Structures are given as structure tokens and as C-alpha cells.
Amino acid sequence: MSDKTVREIGSFATDTRVDRVGKVMGHVGPYVRLRPPRGGREWDAAPEDLRRLEPHESG
Hints:
Elements: E1 12-15, E2 20-28, E3 31-35, E4 43-45, E5 50-52
Antiparallel strand pairs: 1-2, 1-5, 2-3, 3-4
């Protein structure tokens, strides 16, 4: 994904590979580290698999 705002720490994105929403917690090598919005186990996502959340999806 070319939109770097998707990878900003604290932003929210959808990992399209697993169809999950996560909060960007950081970066590990080439991957973006995500955590479920209500907490839980983090996972790594490839930047090209991320999609920015639309305003209607954040609720």
C-alpha cells in the first residue's frame, strides 16, 4: 500500500490478508505490528496487505 498514513503508529488499518482491524503499534523489519483495537495479541502484517479504515468503519 502506498499510503504511508496506514503505517503511522497509533493509526488503525485493516489487514486484508486475515480481514482484521488493528492499531499500528510499530514496525518489525519489513512488517507492521498490529494489535486488536480492544487489546489482545499483536500480529505482523505486510504493508501491502494493509488498508486504511474509512470513517464509517471506526465506530
